[in-house]
Fold these 3 entries.
Entry 1:
Amino acid sequence: MLRSALITFVVVTLTLWLMPGVASADIVDTLSLVVLVAVTGAVLRPLLLLGVTALGGWGAMLFGVVAQVAVMVVALDLDPANRISGLPTLVIAAILAVIFAALLDWMVDAGSDDMFVREARRLMRGVRRRAARRAGGPLFTTRRPRPGTEPGLLVVQLDGVAEPVLRWAVRAGNLPVLGQWLRSGSHTVRRWHTGLPSTTPASQAGILHGASRQIPAFRWFEKDSGKVLVANRPRDAAVIERRLSDGRGLLRDGGVSIGNAFGGDAATNLLTVSHAALPGRSARGWAAFMASPYGFTRALVLGVAEVFTELHQARLQRRRNLLPRVSRSGAYLALRPAAMLLRDVNVSLVAEQMARGVPVIYCDLVDYDEVAHHAGPARPESMRQLESLDRMLGVLERLSPEAARRYHLVVLSDHGQSQGATFRQRHGETLDEVVQRLTAETAAAPREPAEEQGKREPDPVPEAAPLLVLSSGNLSLIYLTRCPHRVLRAEIEKTYPRLIAGLAAHPGIGLVVVGDDQGPIAFGPGGSHRLRDGEVSGQDPLLPYGRQARADLLRHQEAAHVGDLVVISSVDPETAEVAAFEELVGSHGGLGGWQTDAMLVHPAAWTVTVDLDGPDAVHRQLVEWLVMLGLRDEVRPGVTAGDAIHAADLDRNSSPRLSPTREG
C-alpha cells in the first residue's frame, strides 16, 4: 500500500505539472487525490474486471487498457480541487498518468518480478476459492488454500535454446534459477537430437503427437492440392493437426496447451496456433492480465521501450561492423515487444491452470528464438532474453505453493540455432536464382522467412513457375510443380541435366538429396553417399554434418510431401557456421552447427529409458513420466515378431486399425 501510494503521488504530481493551465501544487490537495485514486480503483476495478472477463478475446485487450484510463479519468474528475476539467483534457491526463505509472513500476521492479508474482498469486487464490465454493465450501473465507498434493506435470518449452548455449549460460552464472536447480542436484540437463527438419512445427508434432514425419519443413508444397502449407498459419496448422491427431496426444485426459503450434489432443487450447482464437471468457488468467495495471497496459508501454532498445542495439551492430548480421527493421520491430507480451500472458495463463489443478500443461515461450534469429544465438541481446525466461521459471517456482497440484517442472527446447552469414550475403544470389540459372526456367520462392510468411494470407503458386523453392533456415525443398508425383533422379536429369550437378558443385551448398531407384542419394561437392546402404563414392558429403546425418536424411526422405530435391547449405568445419537460405543470422531447419542440439531439463531422480533421438522419442519419454506420476494409464508395449500373443495383452475396448493420419 505504501509503495502504491508513493508511486501514485509521484505520477499525479508529474501529470499535473505537465498539464497546461494547472497551477496548483498544494501537497494536501495532491495527497487527497492519491486517496481518491486508490478508492476509485478499489471500487471500479472489480467491476471493470467483470467486463473484461465477459468480453474475452480482443475485447479484453481493448477494455483492459480502457479500464486503467477509466480509473484515472473518474478520479481526476472527482478531484475536489477541480484542477482538470473537460473530457478530452481528462483523458489525456489519464493516459499520461497510466504511462508514467507503468514506467515507474518497471523502474522499481527492475531485476524483480515481485509485483507480477503478487498479481498471479491473487489470481490463483481467487480461482481456487471459487472452485471450493462450487464444491460446497464456505461462501467467504480469508483462509489461504492449501498447496495441492496430487502430482501434476508442467512442461515449459524455451523455443530455440541449444543445449550448449544453455550449459554455457549456466556456467557463466547468467541463469540463476536453472543454475540453482542443476547445482543443487534437483534437476539434470541432457541433450536430445532433433533430427531433420529442426523446426518448431516438426518438433512439436513429435513431442505433442508422436508424429513428426508428417512435417518435412516449416513450409512445403503439396502436389495433390497444389497448395503451399506454412505451419504457423492458423488455417494450415488446423489442417496439419487433423493429420497428426489420433486422440492419444501428450495432453489428452484433461491437459492444457498454451502458446503452441499444435494442441496435443488437449482439453483446453489457449493461444494455440492450430485453434486460431484468443482465450475466451472462461480463461480468467487472460482477463486478469488484461485488467491489471501490472499486466497488459504495463507490457504495452514497455513494448514501446523495447522497440527503441532494438533500434539502439541494431545501430550498435552497424557501428561496430559486427558480422554476420542482417537487417533488424520492418516487421521484426513489432516481434520483440509482441514476444515479451506473449511471455507474460502465457505465464499468467499457466498460473491460472495450475490453480485449476489440470494434470499436465505444455507452454511454449518464444522470446529467445525471435531475437536470436536476427541478432545471433549467442549475442548479448539474445542472452538477455534467455535470462528473462530464466526469471519466468523462477516465477513459476514461486507460484507452485498456490497450485492445486504438486507440479513437477520439466524444461525443454524444440531445437537449437546455428549462426552464419546468409547464402545471399556470401554468394550474391539467392537459391532460387541459382536454380533459375541452372535450369533456364522460372523458379518461384517467397521473399520473407518462413516464420513471417505464416502471418499473412497464402500466396498462390505461380502457374508460370515450373520450379518452387521453399526454404526453412539452411534447409530448402525444391519441387517440380508440373509433375504430380515425386520426381526421381533420372527424370530430373533428363529434364534439367545441369541442376543436380550444378547445385552440388556450388560452394554454398553442402548436400543435395534426391530419390533414386536404389534409394535416396546425397550429393556433395566432391562425392556422393547412397543413404540406404551407406555406399560412398569420392569424398563423403555427410562428414561435416556429424555421425547422425545419414539416419536424419533417411528419416526425412520418408516424410510426407518432401521435396523432389532436398538442399542443405554448407557448414564451416572450424566455426560450425551455416548459410541460411533465408535472411536470418541465426537459423534452424536443416543440419549443421547447434540447430539439432536441443536440451531437456528434468528432475534428477527420473529415469530416462528412451534414446532421445528425434522428437517422437521425447514424446515417448514424456508419456512414460506421465504413467510414472499416475497421470496416464500404462501403455502396453507392442508385440514384436515371434512373440506369443496372450489374451491379457489385448485391449478389449478398442478395435485394431491403421491410422491414415499417422501412417499415410
Entry 2:
Amino acid sequence: MANRLAQTTSPYLLQHADNPVDWWPWSPEAFEEARRRDVPVLLSVGYASCHWCHVMAHESFEDETTAAYLNEHFVAVKVDREERPDVDAVYMEAVQAATGHGGWPMTVFLTQDAEPFYFGTYFPPEPRHGSPSFRQVLEGVSAAWSDRREEVAEVAGRIVADLAGRSLAHGGDGVPGEAEVAQALLGLTREYDEQYGGFGGAPKFPPSMAIEFLLRHYARTGAEGALQMAADTCSAMARGGIYDQLGGGFARYSVDREWVVPHFEKMLYDNALLCRVYAHLWRTTGSEEARRIALETADFMVRELRTAEGGFASALDADSEDQEGKHVEGAFYVWTPAQLRAVLGEEDGAFAAAYFGVTEEGTFEEGASVLQLSHEGRPVDAGRVADVRARLLAAREERPRPGRDDKVVAAWNGLAIAALAETGAYFDRPDLVERATEAADLLIRVHLGEVARLTRTSRDGRAGTNDGVLEDYGDVAEGFLALAAVTGEGAWLEFAGFLLDIVLEQFTGEGGQLYDTAHDAEKLIRRPQDPTDSATPAGWTAAAGALLSYAAYTGSDAHRTAAEGALGVVKALGPRAPRFIGWGLAVAEALLDGPREVAVAGPVGGELHRTALLGRAPGAVVAAGEGPGAAAEFALLADRPLVGGEPTAYVCRHFVCDAPTTDAGELAVKLGG
C-alpha cells in the first residue's frame, strides 16, 4: 500500500511511495503526529540520482522488519534536498558540526520541535567498519528517548544554540579590491594540480566557477598564469572520463585525480555551468576543443534533459541495468574491448580501444573501461573517429537508460538559460537561443504563476509547493539577463528586475548580508545563510552578480549598493578559500572592471551586436536594438543616435563613455579587457 509520499511531485519522494515505511513529507502535520504519539522524528534527506540513497532505501526502507520497528517508534519524514535546500542546509550544518563530515543520505533524529539530537549519513543493515547497523541506531535512539529524555533535550538545545551562534561575519568592510583578488589567485595557484589540471586531490570536482574567475581575471589584467590554469583544466576534463566522449555532457565528479573514473550521475547544474565555461574559454582563446565541448554539452542538455514543457530536468542517475539486469553504477557508459569489437568489428574495435583508452584489464570495475581520450597528440583520422563515435552511440542507445529526475528546479534552469542563450549566440545556433527562451517562458508561466513569487520546482507543468530560495532568484535573474543581452528583448530585463526587487525586499539583512530564505518563509531552527559556492553559485553570490548586471543596465543605485554590500563576503573569504567562492570572485572581477555598459544602436544579431557579445570585459552588459521602441526597453539605448546613418556602439563605465564607433574591429578592442 502506498504511503503519503504518493501525493507528492518529487521523483525522489515518489521512489519511496511504496516503501513499507510510513513516510511523511516535511510538514507541520508530521511534527504534530510525533507530539500526539510522543515519539521522536526520523528525518531522511536525499535526492533522486544519489547512489547511496538508493542502497540504503533497498537495504533498510524496503525491509518489512526494519520498517515495522521504525513505524512503531518514530514518525519518519522524507525530504528531497533539491526541493527543500533550506531544510537540507540547516541540518547538514548540524551534521557537519557534530561529526566533521556530511553527505547523503543524511539521517537525523529530531525532537518534536524539529531540534536535532543524533546524526549520521548512510547506515548499513549490518554493523560494519566500526559503524553500527541502522537497526542498532534506531534501537539506541528509541531507548535514549524513552529512558533519558532530559539528556536528549539538553543535547538538542546545545546543538540549536551552537547553530544560532554561528551567525555570519559578512565582511561588511567594503568590496573586494586588487589585493584580495591577487591573494585569491595565489591561493588557487597553490592548490592547482600541475599534472592533471583542477584543484586539490581526489575526488575532483569540475571547478567551473573558479575557471570563470580565472578567465575574467585574465581578460582584465592579462595574467597568463590564470588563463593557463583555466585552459589546461578544461582540456584535461574534456579528454577525461568525467566527460561523456560519445554523448557529450559531464558527470558529477571524478573519483580520482586524473579525471578518469567519474561518479556517473549527470546533473543539469554542472552541465549548464560547464557549457558556459567552455563557451567563454572559446571566446577568450578561439580553442576548437572548447567550441566542440560547449556545443556538445548544450546538445546533451537539450537532447537528454529537456522536458515536454520546455524546461530542463534535474539529473540522470548514475545507475542503470547491466547485461544481467542488475542495477549497477556506470553500466550505461562503460565498455570492454569485446563490446567494442561486437559493435565495430575487429579492426575498428581495435582502433576504438586504442583511441578511447579501453584495455583488457579495464579502468573501472570488472574489466570495463570509461572512455577517455589519449593525452598524446597523435594525428588521427577525424572521419574515422566520427564514424566510430556515431556507431558506438547508436549501440549504446539500445542499452537500458539511467533513470531521469524530471523535476524542473528554477535555479538550475536559470543557469541553463544563460548557458544556452550565450552558446547559441556565439556559435550561430538560434535553436539553442529558442530552447533557452522556452525554458524562461516555463519559469514565468508555471514558477511565477499568479503568486508573483518564485516556486522552487515544477513537474509535468505543475508547480510544486515549495517556495523559491535565494539561489532561485539569483540564478533565474542571471538567465533572464543573459537572454536580454542575446535577444534584445527588454521584457527579460524587466522580469529580472522584478525578481531582484524581491531579493532586496525579502532576502537582504543588515550590512549587505543575504539570507537563503525569505523574511516570510517557514521558520526553521536556524535561518540558512551560506555564501560559499560549492556545486553551484551560492544564492548570495548569484544574487550579487545579477544585482550588479541589473544596475549596469538600468543605472539603479539601490541594486548597485546591494551588490556591493553582498560582495563584502568575497572580500572576507576570497583570500582564504578561493576554491569555494569562485563565482563571488568572478563577480568581484566585474565590479573591478566597471562593469562596462555596451549599447548597440543597430540590428539585433548584426555584426556590432555579435562583437559586443563576444567582448571579454568581465561582466559587461549588452543592450541592442533600433529606434524609439528599443530605447523604451533598455535605458542604455536612450539618446544613442546612429553615426552617419550606420549602426553604432557606445561603451561606458563609471558614468564615462568612450567615443561612439561604427567599426566592429574598434569595438572588439574596446571590449578586449
Entry 3:
Amino acid sequence: MATEPEPQGPARRTPPAQTARTAAASGALRTASGLVAGRAAPAVARGLPTRSGESTPDWLEPAMAANGIGSFDWDIRHDVLEGDPRACAILGLAADRFDRSSAAFLAMLHPEDAPVVRRRVERAVTELGQCGAYYRTVFPGGEMHAARFRGRVLADAFGRASRMVGFVWDATVELHKRVRAGELAALREERSRFIKEAARALSEAVTVRDVARVFTELPLPGLPPDGLVLASLEAGRLQILGATGYRPEDMHPYDRSPIVASHPAAEAIRTRGPVVIASRDEYRERYPEAWPRVSETGRSAWVFLPLVASGRVIGVCLVSFDDDRELDADERTLLATLGGLVAQSLARARLHDAEHELAAGLQRVMLPRTVPSVPGVTTTVRYLAAGSGLQIGGDWYDVVPLPGGHVGLVIGDVQGHDVHAAGIMGQLRIALRAYAAEGHPPAAVMARASRFLADLDTDHFATCLYAEVNIDYGVVYAVRAGHLDPVVRRADGSTAVVPVVGGLPLGVASDEEYRVTRFSLDPGETVVLCTDGLVEARGMDLDTGFARLCEAVSRDLPARGESAADPLDVLADRIASQAADSTEREDDIALLLLRWDGPAGGLAAQQLRRRIGQADLARISELRGELRDALRRWGVPELVDTAELLASELVTNAIRHTDRDAMFTARLYRDPEQGGGARLRIEVEDESDLWPTRRTPGEQASSGRGLMLVEALADGWGVEPRGSGKRMWFELSAEPEGPAA
C-alpha cells in the first residue's frame, strides 16, 4: 500500500526569527540519536501536555477514551518516548515493555512507510510545525495493522525544538479497505486482460470445433468454474458442441434433444437474458421438473447464458460451480460479456463451416469420384485444399481411358480461388475429357480445349498438361499449356524433370497450336503430375520446390507385396504429407501419379496398332517415332531404319491415293524352333478397292518409288483383299542372336 503524499505548502520567505529557531532546532536534532541516524517515529505518552507544560484537560480524556485515541510525548533532545496504554494497545505493545527509543520503534514500521514518517517528522522539527502520517506495523504475533498519528513540535524558551506531542489512533479498518480495494483493482485488471485474451482467442477460432475448444478451456479469473458446456440451437434442439467438467453420460440425454419449456436453458433462450441459479434449493424450487436429472451432476450453482448474434439466439452456454455462488454485478457483467463474445465467434464459425461444406461439396462434384482402373498401369490421386470458406481453387485432375490401348492423364489449374473458378474448372474438365475420348491426338485435344475456354468469354485462363500413355509399350505423348513439367521416377530410383515443349495457357489465344513431346517409360517407372501449389509458395521459388519434390519422389519405396499399401499410394502420401506440413502453402494442390506396370515378365506387348486420319499427315511423323520405340523395346533395333522407311511409304500412299483413313498394325513374331529368330510384319489397311500399281519413275520424278522400295528391302510383301478395301503388308526378318563369345 502506498502511503499518503507528503503535504506541501506554498513557498514563503523565512523571517530572521524563524531562521534562528531553525538553527536551534537543528542543534537539538543532532543530539537525538534516532534522528541523527535518520529515524523518527511517534511515541506514546501518559498525557497530552500543552505548550506551557500543563496536564491534559479533564474533559478531553473521556473523549479520547471513547474514540480509542492514544496520546504520545517525544522528548526530542533525549530521544525519549512516552505514551499512554491506549497508544501501546494500538501499536500492539505492552506499556511496561515498550522500548522508549525511536530507533527500536522504527524497526516495527513497514519498510515502505518508515522513510515517509522520518521525512515528515524531520520537516516538522525543522519548521517547528505539525505533521501526520499513515503507516503499517506488524504485531508480535505477525498480524499486519495500521495506525495514523498527528503531532506538533513544541519549542523551549530559546525557540529550539524540544518536544513533539500528539495523538495516535488505529487505522486497521482502513488498511483492510485498502487491501480489499487493491485486490478488487487487481481482479478487475485481470478480468479486463482475460476478456482481451478471450476475444483474441475466439477471433482466431475458425471452425465450430475451434470455438468449442477455446470456450471449454477458458479460466474465468476470480470465478473459476467447475463445469462448462457450449451448445448450439438447431431447429429447436440443443446440440452439445463441447463440455468440460461433466461426464459424457451426463451430457448424452441433452445432446440433440428438444428443449423442454421447464428447463432454465429454455428460459434463457426465451428471455434472451442470463439465468442465474445460486443454490441447489433455488434450482429445485424454480425448476422442479428439470431438477431430478440435474441433481445427479453434483453441481450447486448454475449460470445459463443465451448466445445472441444478429438478433437471433443461436445457442446456450452453461457455467456451473460445485458450491453455492452469489454473483455480484462485476461477475454478472463478466459472464454476459463472455457470452456475447462466444455468440459472435460461434455465428462466424457456423457460417464458415457451412461455406466450407458447400465449397467442398461443389469441388467433389466437379472432380471425378474415382479414378478408373486401366490394365497395365496403376494410378492414384490426391487433392489438398488450402482455402477456407468459399475460397476454393480451380485445380483438377482426370484419368481418361482411350481406345487402342491408351490412357489419358490430365492435370490443370484454372486461374482464381472462388466458386466461379471451380465452375469453369468443371466445364473445362468435361470438355477436355470429351475431346480426348473422341480419339483426337494430344495436340488437337489441347487446341480444342483452349478454343473452348476462349469461347466461354470468362476472362479466366487455365494451365494444363495432357499426357497420352501407350499402355502396350510405355510411350508418353505430352502436351503442355503453361503448366509444370512432369517428374519421372526411373526404375533405379533416380528422379528427373522431363522438359515438355510448352504453349500458352488455355483460353489466352483461341488459335494456339501445341507441340507434342514424346518420352518413354520402362516397366515400374512412375510419372508425377502436379499443380503449382506443390512447388511454389511464399518464400519458396520454383527451383527449390522442384528440388524438394524430386527428393521426396526419389526416396526408397517398399516393393510391391511388402506392405498392405501399394508403393504408388505410399509415394503419393509422402508427397502430400510433405506439402500438408508446410506452413508456407497458400494454394490448392492436385496430384496425379501413374506407374506403367507393363505386361507380365516386364516386356512390352509386341504389337502396335494405330489409326491415321486422312487429313492428319502430322500423325505419320508420330507413328514413325512410336515404331522406333516399339522395335527397340521388342529387341530388334536393327530393323528400325528399314521398317520406318517402308511403313512411312505404305501409310502415305494409303491416305494420299485412297482418300480414306488408314489402319496401321505392326506385330513381331518369334519362332522358338529357329533359335528365337524374329519376324516383323507390318500391315496397312484402307477402305478403298483401288489396288496399288508398281511404276517405274524417271530420274527427276519426286514420287512413285514406294513399291520399288518395298520390293527391294522387304523379305516379303503383298496385297490382300478385305470385305471392303484391302490390306498391304511387308515382312522383315531379324537373325537370332549368336552365342556369347
